[in-house]
Amino acid sequence: MHPSGSPSYHVVWLKSLAEVDRYQWDALAEPLSTPFLEWEWLHQMEISKSTEAETGWLPRHLTVWLRGQLIAAAPLYIKQHSAGEFVFDHIWADVAGRLNISYYPKLVGMSPFTPMVGYRFLMATGVDERALTRYMINAIEQFCRQYRISGCSFLFVDPQWRRLMINYGFIGWLHQSFTWKNENYRSFEDYLAAFNSNQRRNIKRERRSISRDGINLKIFEGDQIPPAYFSLIYPFYERTNDKFGPWGCKYLKRSFFKSLADRYRRRLVFVSEL
Description:
The protein is of the alpha+beta class and 274 residues long. It has helices spanning 22-29, 39-47, 90-98, 129-146, 159-167, 188-192, 197-212, 230-242, 254-263; strands spanning 10-14, 57-59, 61-66, 69-74, 77-79, 106-109, 122-123, 152-154, 217-221, 269-273. The strands form three sheets. Strands 1-3-4-7 form a four-stranded antiparallel beta sheet, sandwiched between helices. A four-stranded mixed beta sheet has the order 2-5-6-8, covered by helices on one side. It has a two-stranded antiparallel sheet with strand order 9-10. The termini are far apart. Mean pLDDT is 92; it is low at 1-5.
């Protein structure tokens, strides 16, 4: 199975990121605008048991090889539920149940528990993206048929890649979200200009109150981050999720956050009150 006129590709389905060389994987992932598809981030989720069968996030990553070289990959997970995705398709599952159609298991492509836009197939430079994308879609469809998986969804995808996938027959599903974007502001005054006079006055008043209260913030990144800070992340994470009760998303284990100190600090930024 390969696109007409293309080299013969070889598909390998992985049960763990440990089965693939991290440098080959990251050669495909690091050029993207998101860091959440990189080998170390996803691997630490697996070895911390944040993503496993018991949590309903079973890794099944698609990789495509050409003459022993990794040329494409797709982080994928077999799901037995819809929790932890930040996309609410429970009504679809309910309708499927009423029609006596199995909705689970399903296959999901995303960075687990991470509602940040940027997911897409990882590909080497110089490949025929359209032909290779079609090849990977065919491999996913065959995998779903073989293991009786209801279908595959890709969540929080790269906007440009979304348009490509719609051309291949996928249905776009838009969700409301709130993400701040720097609209080429050169100063804070440029940012304030987008508001009316009352809003600008309130924002300035709030900033002055922070200064009066003696609140000062300092940003730490990479090697500047104090080691003790990493032990504070999990309690913050746990407390935030507990506020949402059954709608929380408490999947990441304490060991995952601790591993970031040695494995992923180059991608981290901490904001601390002095």
